[in-house]
Give the backbone structure.
Amino acid sequence: MALLHLSGEATFDTVRLVGMAIRAVCASVSSSSEAAQIELAVVEASNNIVEHAYRAVQGDIALDVDIGEKKIVIALHDTGETMPTASHQSANLDFDPMNLDDLPEGGMGLFLMTSIMDEQSYVSVNGKNTLTLTKFLHGENND
Amino acid sequence: MATITTTKAANVMVVTVTEKRLDAKIAVSFKDEMASLINAGETTVVLDLSNVGFVDSSGLGAIVTSLKLIGRKGDLLVAGVKDDVMTMFTLTRMDRVFQMFPTTDDALNSLIAK
C-alpha cells in the first residue's frame, strides 16, 4: 500500500500534470493500456472540477492516490460547487453513429469515468467534495 | 500558439496535430483552427494524430465538431491514431463514426481510389 498526494491550482495545466503522474504511477502496477485509461478517467474527473465545480472562480484540486496490490483508489477533492445528482452529464452515451446531427460534442466525461473505473462515489461534506474512483487490478471484480 | 500544421495534397488538406495532448487546454484553439480551414473551403481533410499520445473528451468533441462543420460537403478522415488514443475512439464508439487509417498515406490513397 502506497499513498501519494497531489495538489495544485485547478487549471487545465495542472490537470495535464496530474494525468501524466497518474499514468506513470498506475503503469507501475498495471498494464500500460490500463494506465492510459485510468489517466483518461482522472483527467475527465479533473476537467469537470475545473470547468464545473469552480467555473469562473479559482480553487484548488487535490488527489489522494492509493496504490494497493489489488486495487487503485484515487480520491479527487475540491471545494467548489457540489455536483447535482442529476448531473448535466449522462453515464450513458447513446447516439446513432450514422446520424451526423446526433453525434455528441461534449458531456462524455461521466460516461468515460464509469466505463473505465469499477467503482465511483461522490460525497460532499462541509463544502468539501470528494469523488472516489476505484480500479481493481488483475481482473478481480472486473465486471 | 497553433496546434496544427497543414499540407495541401491535390484537393485534400492534411492537418497534423503538433501537440502531444489534444485535451481541454487546447481543444478550443484546435476547434477554432479547424473551423477557419473548413470555413475557407477545405472540406476534404485528413487529420493526422500520429504525434498525439492523449485525447480527452474535449479533444474528441472538437474533432466531432469539425466533422459536423464539414457535414455532407466533404470528408474528415482520421489517420495515425496510437493504440492508447484508439481506446478513446472505441470506448465512445467514435471509431464507427470516423473513417480511420493507420497512416496519412493510407487515408490519401483511399480518397484517390474513390
Notes: Residues 32-53 of chain A form the longest helix (22 residues). Chain A has three helices and five strands.
